[in-house]
Amino acid sequence: MPLLYPPRSTDSQAVARHRARLKRAVEAEPDATRRAHALAVLDDDRHRALIDGVLSGSPFLTEVALEAPFSLVRTLDEGAQAVVDQVFAELSEPGAPPERPRLMAALRRARKRLALAVGLADLADAWSLEQVTGTLTRFADLVIDCTLHRLLLDAADRREMQLDPDDPVGRSGLIVLGMGKYGAGELNYSSDIDLIVLYEPERFRVQGGATPMGLASRLVRGLEYVLQEKTKEGYVFRVDFRLRPHPPGHPLALPVEAAELYYERHGQNWERAAMIKARPVGGDLAAGERFLANLRPYLWRKYLDFAAIADIHSIKRQINAHRGFSEIAVHGHDVKVGRGGIREVEFFAQTQQLILGGRDPVLRNPRTVEALEALAESRWVEDEAAAEMIACYRYLRQVEHRLQMVADQQTQRLPEREDRFEAFAAFAGHDGAGTLVRDLDETFRTVERHYAALFETSPDLGAGASLVFTGTEDDPATLEHLAALGFSDPAAVSRRIRGWHHGHVRATRTVRARELLTELIPALLQAFGRTPDVNAAFALFDRFVSNLPSGVQIFSLLRANPKLLRLIVDLTGAAPKLASHLAAHTDLLDALLEPDFFEPLPEPGQLVAEMASRLQDARDLQDKLDMMRRWAHGRQFQAGLHILLGVTPAERACLMLSQIAEVAVVELLPEAEEWLVSQHGQIQGSRFCVVGLGKFGSRELTIGSDLDLIFVYDAPEEASSDGARPVSADVYFARLANRLTSALSARTGEGTLFEIDMRLRPSGNAGPVATRLTRFVRYQEEAAATWEHQALTRARVVAGEPGLAAEVEAAIEAVLRRPRPVDALAKDVRAMRMRIFKEHGNEDPWNLKHVRGGIVEIEFLAQFLQLAHLAAEPAIRDRSTPSVFARAASTGILPADEAVRLDEAWRLMIRLFATLRLSQEEKTMPKNAPQAMQEALLRATDPQGLAGVPNDIALLQLRLVESQEAVRQIFDRLVPTEGA
Questions:
Q1: Nearest-angstrom CA–CA distance, 122 and 5
Q2: 242 pLDDT exceeds 60?
Q3: Distance (Å, rounded) from C-alpha 216 to C-alpha 200?
Q4: pLDDT band at 978 (very low <50, low <70, confident <90, very high)
Q5: With contact defined as beta carbons under 8 Å apart, do 41 and 22 qualify?
Q6: Interior/surface letters 88-99, b for 16+ CB within 10 angstroms, e for the rest
Q7: Which residue has the higher pLDDT, 439 or 574?
């Protein structure tokens, strides 16, 4: 396998300059003997190449050597171990560590001396990988011990806790666990140290006003500050606490019982993988060992079900195991998490340890090389594969160390620029970049080959891309893939998905839910990629997931039904209004599970029976209101999806939406009446009814439509109620109307049913909420404007006392059939049409309601025809807009071809309008609309079978414009301008 060599010098001028500085630093030594010896060592030919290579290739080691020239000399003269032993001895002196400022300075100076010694031993190939990483790990252990000792003494001095005088650290009850490479004793050269801090409450003895968690968290922050704070002396270690258990609140320190409970209930398999390397590194080591012993059943399971094994495999399988061995671009490659990198070697061992270690204790080794050797000895891995993976691992760790020695940065990425790569190749001891590229490429391919073979029988959960959402760090390739899918902030998306995996939402707090989610993520992201606004789609789905009470059932359903998963994601792109509703009311998924969801929409009788069945268990009015909303939302959602998917014509769906509203009004009116009786008694001989107008009256409601209502009552003059709090009839029925509208429109925990609009009542907003029958009839006969009579053409009684209902209907019909001067009528209708157009219209054909020739104009035509001809031709009477045209043609009032064109235009526009109402904005124009919405519009209208032809929307718009022009011409002929 490839090897690294002592560094080569490539910059003679820099070397000469730094050698001169080094000489000056040594000459400042007052002891002549020591000074002469140091200069001789530095000039010794045995050390010249190594020194020059360091001065040429590592700014960090150069500066350390200039600060501590005699540490450099001693390392060269006596070996690195002598310097390391001296550093350890100084930090291990008996007694209390110095005060915090002095301790911080001492630790930083010690770290630099140790870094120089270990770096030179590594560069000269004088130490093995295990010696290098083991020394760095032991230094971290010693640093943590000194720092904790100081912090605990300070806390005791502040009277925040009691310490055992014989062993203040070892019996403190505070546990520091080392994780990752630190826990395994494999620290890299410029490594972070991953820590988890716990405490045993019975041994962690706080006092005064301190709380155990509060004090432990302050100690954690103190530890972080001492080690990580950048001072003029540098830093000691960067500290990372992200592997700690993640219960709600994310405390920095947890009692051991809470941590055990977290792992038992919420621990993920990647956390089990991390725990393989866990080791007590500071504080109460005995307590730490007890904690890890208690976790052994969680970590090392003797029996795993297939789902758990699949989830363990998914730790890797989310990273695409490329089997084609296409070219690996070495420049810029990450030797840790990139293809064929260190992470793959570690996962190669860890995934098998998790699956097999419960039955074979020999495999429970935290060190990567020893774990691979154990897998080979137990015959789980071929000897050749293990040997090659070990050799690759050692080589990549050496490369990693060289990368970090250059500038003391926590990096694993190879230089991308050619000149910098050439310089690094020299620091790695190569004559040129070509041989380093060859060696690295060979190593990456070898790791990749063995790694892919391990998972070759498992499906690729990455769907051909790198998708890693385990652990606590962002995977670079995953971020690249998310960016390619269109996410504007890939890191935020990655964090959020990791939050799902961490159990930060209710739906993912069980192991099984997270296992299922792992399987779903790639398909989910691919589905997001199909939406025009991937960020908005993800935000809505995040809301959807966050609102789920539990995840196993839904995730199982989505995994078993990929079409349903795509449907939910498509909703966020094509119909964000519908998707928002689903996100806010995840119980609507129950409606999706109903076997008849995609069957023909139910008839009115079925809706009435269904509502009655749902409400029979209602305990009170509030319960009934919530149940009614859940039922209505489910059926409305069904109608919306039918429209979106083209399962049902929009006019049929609109009919069902109207029937839902009617059922709700009929069901709630008795509740309102019962409440009124309880408050004010009854008015003997009185009657009450509810009249629907507009699209409710004509049974043409769309998603989100208001209900246009008026309320009519009949009661003896001067009558009042007979209850304990009597009121007049006007007040009585106004309160009844208000009670009913409140029941229909009030927002409960399940949302609202309908918004109510009562502006069409006599005298509009200035009139009484409920109108006496005699006043209603008189107003319509004597005072109502033409536009109000137009509204009456769609009026119908939807609930109330049958006798009064018949009288109201008869009064309406009498008003509508009254003879009218056609010219004056045409003038009024046209004036109102132009007024509405001026306020809301424009020339955009997708302004479907208000454009000339649009929906409003078609409706006005149907209303005009009835008001103009009902006196002579009662047969044309109908509340349905298209039915009026058919009746008018059958009586000869309207030419048959015009009736057909009006019918086709109305159906085209009402289908487009109903579909666009599912979007967030009603005025969304198809040229800017999501692709999924454009497809939905084409499905809804199927313009002469043109679906699938390029520029379908353009052809649909052409048809729309032609239809609107036809309507406009007919309107202008039948309702001409004055003098035309």
A1: 10
A2: yes
A3: 11
A4: low
A5: no
A6: eeebeeeeebee
A7: 439
Tell me the CATH class for 79-299: alpha beta
Q: Using DSSP, state whether 414 is helix, strand or coil.
A: coil
How far apart are the C-alpha atoms of 881 and 868, rounded to whole Å? 15
Detail the DSSP E strand segments found in 773-840: 796-800
Mean pLDDT of the chain: 87
Task: Quickly tell me which residue has 């971020």 as its tokens.
Answer: 479
Cα–Cα nearest to 650, from 881, 917, 850, 894: 917
Show the tokens assigned to 956. 């649909």
pLDDT at 219 over 50: yes
Residues 6+ apart with CB under 8 A from 31: none
Q: Which CATH class is domain 648-816?
A: alpha beta
- With tokens 């009586």, the residue in question is 891
Domain boundaries, the chain: 79-299, 648-816, 822-974
Contact criterion met (CB below 8 Å) for 723 and 679: yes
Which has the closest alpha carbon to 861: 958, 784, 793? 793
Torsion of CA 808, 812, 815, 816, to 10 degrees: -170
What pLDDT sits at residue 471?
65
Residue 829's pLDDT is what? 95
For β-strands 174-179 and 193-199, DSSP reports them as antiparallel
Provide the residue type at 872 as one letter: A
pLDDT band at 200 (very low <50, low <70, confident <90, very high): very high
C-beta of residue 153 within 8 angstroms of C-beta of residue 101: no
CA 658-661-666 angle, to 5 degrees, is 125
Same fold, 648-816 and 822-974: no
Per-residue three-class SS string for 134-201: HHHHHHHHHHHHHHHHHHHHHHHHCCCECCCCCCCCCCCCEEEEEEHHHHCCCCCCCCCEEEEEEECC
Q: Are strands 770-772 and 707-714 parallel, antiparallel or unpaired?
A: parallel
Q: State which fold the 822-974 domain adopts.
A: Four Helix Bundle (Hemerythrin (Met), subunit A) (1.20.120)
For residue 798, what is the DSSP state? E
